[in-house]
Amino acid sequence: MAQLVARTFGLTDRVGEKYLNRPRQSQPQAVQEAIQTIKDLAAAGHEDALFVLAEMEMYGQYMTEIDLDSAFEHYQQLADISGNATAQYMLGFFYATGLGSVEQQNSMALLYTTLAAIQGHHPAEATLASKHLAGIGVPMSCEKALGYYQSVARSAILYFQSGPILGHRIPDQRVRLSDDNGGTYGVRTGPFSLHKLIDKNSFDELLLYHMQDAEKGHLKTCMTLVDLFYHGHRFAPRNYPLTLKYLRQVLKQLMTDQITPRKGLSQPEMSIAAQAAGMYGIMHLRGEGMPIDTAAALKWLNAGAKMGHGMSCNALGVMYRDGIEVPANQERAIELFKLAADRGHQGGQVNFALAVMDVMPDIARENLKKAADNGHILAHFYLAELYAGLAAGESRCQMAVASYKYVSENGDWLHSPIPSAHAEFQQGELDAATLKYMQAAEMGYGVGQLNAALLLEAAAKRIDAAGRKSTTGTGLWSLFKTRQAHLRQTLAYWTRAANSNMPDARVKQGDHYYYGVGVEQDAERAAAAYVVASEADANGLAMWNLGWMYENGVGVKRDFYLAKRWFDKSIEVNEGGKLASHLSLARLCIKYLWAWIRGEDVGESPLFFAPKPVTDEEEKMVQAKAKKQDDHADAQKQRVGGNLEDGDWERRAGALDADDADANDEDADEDDESLSGNLFFVILFLAAGWMFLPMR
Fold it and tell me: What is the DSSP string of 136-147?
C-alpha cells in the first residue's frame, strides 16, 4: 500500500533506475592470457591460484562475468585442500543465503563459518556473533555472541592503538543507499527521509560558495571548511592540504607570531582561535598533511590548552603521559585529562577514567559512560571489558555485547566489506556490490542489511522489466536460482534491517506480507508490522496503511474510528502525504455515513462525535480542582467535630456544587464547539469526496 501511495504521488524507488550494471568491456589479450594461466594453475591444485580464481568468479573481477557456481566449487576445493579460513567463510556464506544453485542449509552454514572463526577469521566471528545474538539459525545465546564480539573488538582496538598518536582515524560513516533517493520511499515520506534531495552537483555549488566566502576572510566559514576537509564527507573526501590552508588563514588573523591570541579578540573569536590552534597542533603531532613535528605540536597545543580547548588539553596530556617532547609527568597528564573531561571532550573523559580507575572507580565509570554516549570507540571498549569481567548475568552480558558490537562495527578497518561494496556500487557493479552488502548483512551491520535489501529489490525490478536471463550462470534470477529464493532473501534482509532500526525497513517488511512477495500473503502480519512502524518510528506511510486497512477491514476488524485516527496521525507526521491522507479522510466520511445509513457495523466508537481529547492544560485543571476538594475535606476532618453548624456545611457544599456547575457549563460549551467543528468537517469532506473520489 505504501508503494501504491508512492507511485500515485510520484515517489518511486530510483535505486534500480539510477544505477544500472556497467556494461562489460572486452578483455585485453594480456588479461585473457593471465586468466587462462590462473585457471591452469588452479586445475593443478595451486592454492593461491584457486583463491584468485574463486574471488574473480565471485565478484566479476578483471572484466569477467560473475559465476557463482564455479566460485563455490573453487572455494570448496581450496577449503578441502588447505582449510583456508576465507574459503570456509565463503562456503558458509553460500549455504546461509542460498546463492547460485546452492541449497540454503543453516547447519552447513554454521559448520563452515565456525571452522573459519576458529582460525580467527574476523568476518566469520562477527557473523557467528550476530547469529547467536539474534537467534538466526541457532539458539539465541548472549554468552556465545559475547565471546565472538569480544575477539573482533579486541583486534580492532589493537589496530586502533597501533596507529599514529591518538590512534587511527575511525572509518568513514556508512552510507545508506536510500539517501540517494531522499529515503526508501523518496523525500518527505517518513521521519528519517530527507526534506530535500541533495546530489553531488548541489553540494559542489554550496561548497564553492563557502570557499569563495572563506577567501574574504570570514572566520566561521573558514572553520566550517576546516571541519569538512579534516573529517571528510561523502561528497568531499578528506583533504589535509585544504584543511591546513584554511587553518593557517584563521590563525593568521587571530594569533601572533609568538603563538598567542591577538589583543582585543571577542569571546567567539577566542573560541575559534583555541579550536584552530588545537587542530593545528594535532596535525603536527600526527603528521597529517605535513611531517611529524612534536616541538611545533607542543607549542600549538599549549596555546590551545591555555585558551581552554578540550581537545588541546587531551592531546597535551597524552604528550606528558608518554613523555613526548617533554619529560613524562603523570600528575600533569591527569590534570590535563581532567580539564579536557570537564570540557566534555570524549578522549579526555576516557584518558581521565583510565588514569583514575583504580582509585576512583565510580568517577571513572561515569566518565566512560559519558564518552560512550557520544560514540567514543575506546569508551565502549573499556565499558565492555568492565561488564564482561563482572559477575555473570544476562543484563551485564547484554551491555557488554552492545559495546563490543559497537566497537567491532565502527572500528572495522580490517574486516568490513562495506567500503568495497560502496565502491562497487558507485562504479555501477551492482551484482558485486549486492554480494558484499549481503556479507555485511550476515555480519549484523544494519546498513548492510538495508542496502542489500534495496539492491536485491532493485535487481528484481530490473529483471522483471527487462525480461532477460541472468549472466551469473545460475538460472533466471540474478544471484539466486529462482525468483522465489531472490524475493525470500530480500524479505529476510528487510526484516533484519527493521530489527536494526533502519529507516522505513519495517514498512517494507509489511509491504512484503501484504502483497505476498517472497512469503505467503498475510494481511494480519502486515498490519502488525505497520503498527510497530507507526508506534515506534512514527512513520506516516505505515499510519496511512493502517488507516486504509481499518477502513476496509483488511487484516484487522473494520473500524472507521480507528481508520480516521490513523489518517489523522499520518497528516501530523507525513508532510509529503498530506494530500493523500486528506482525500482518504473524505472518502472515509462518505463510506462511514453510507454504512451507518444501511445499518452496517461501523465500529464501536462514533467517527465524528467522539469525545474531544483532553489536553495537558485541561488535565492539570481537573487535577487542581480535585486537589482543592481534597485539601478542603482534609481541613474539615482536622477540625473538632461539631464546630461547623449545619448551615455552614450546606453553604460550603453549595459553593463546591457551583464550581462543578461552572465546570460542566464550560464542558458543554466545548462540546458544542466540538460538535459544530465536526459537522463542518463532515460537510467539507463530503463535498471533497463527491468531487474527487467516486463512491463504490
Answer: SSS---HHHHHH
Q: Give pTM, 2 decimals.
A: 0.83
* Lookup: cell for 452: 542489500
**Which amino acid, 396?**
R
Length of the chain: 696
**Do 240 and 221 touch, CB atoms closer than 8 A?**
no
Q: Is the Cβ–Cβ distance between 428 and 389 less than 8 Å?
A: no
Across 222-239, b (16+ Cβ under 10 Å) vs e yields: bbebbebbbeeeeebebe
d(CA 77, CA 524): 46
Q: What is the DSSP letter of 358?
A: T
Task: Tell me how far apart the alpha carbons of residues 356 and 619 are, in angstroms, rounded to a whole number.
Answer: 49
Task: State how far the Cα of 314 lies from the Cα of 371, in Å rounded to an integer.
Answer: 13
Phi, psi at residue 480, to the nearest 5°? -125, 165
Please tell me the distance from the alpha carbon of residue 551 to that of residue 581, in angstroms, as a whole number. 12
Q: What is the pLDDT of residues 649-691, one digit of tens each?
A: 333 334 334 444 444 444 444 444 434 444 445 555 555 554 4
* Location of C-alpha cell 547484554: 398
Contact in structure between 443 and 133 (CB atoms under 8 Å): no
Q: Are 203 and 235 in contact (CB under 8 A)?
A: yes
Contact in structure between 13 and 184 (CB atoms under 8 Å)? yes
Backbone angles phi, psi at 236, to 5 degrees: -145, 100
Residue with grid cell 573529517, as numbered in its chain? 231
**pLDDT tens column, 109-164:** 999 999 999 999 999 999 999 999 999 999 999 999 999 999 999 999 999 999 99
Tell me if 277 sits within 8 A of 303, measured CB to CB: yes
Please tell me the distance from the alpha carbon of residue 401 to that of residue 660, in angstroms, as a whole number: 57
